[in-house]
From TrEMBL:
<dbReference type="Pfam" id="PF05635">
    <property type="entry name" value="23S_rRNA_IVP"/>
</dbReference>
<dbReference type="InterPro" id="IPR036583">
    <property type="entry name" value="23S_rRNA_IVS_sf"/>
</dbReference>
<protein>
    <submittedName>
        <fullName>Four helix bundle protein</fullName>
    </submittedName>
</protein>
<dbReference type="InterPro" id="IPR012657">
    <property type="entry name" value="23S_rRNA-intervening_sequence"/>
</dbReference>
């Protein structure tokens, strides 16, 4: 499995972008009355998927850092206090 250097190289991100474009095309066919109430919410949610994938990809590095920080804190608290 190849490692992706950027979030926009992820297959899931590419799929979410294509799906969002497909949603936009489909929603253009909706009746005029529905274009600003129902379709606005659907469009925002379709864009949200790609944003959440990108955000999660960036945060994956911090999970390891936080875990190591927790382990360090735990090990320091296990040491007997000398003084």
């Amino acid at each position: 499995m190849a490692y992706d250097n950027y979030y926009y190289e992820l297959d899931d991100y590419k799929l979410s972008r294509q799906s969002a474009k497909d949603v936009y095309v489909i929603l253009k066919k909706f009746p005029f009355e529905e274009r600003y109430s129902l379709t606005d919410q659907i469009r925002r949610s379709s864009r949200s998927v790609g944003s959440q994938i990108a955000e999660s990809w960036v945060k994956r590095r911090y999970v390891i850092i936080l875990f190591l920080s927790f382990l360090t804190q735990m090990l320091n608290s296990m040491r007997p206090n000398t003084g």
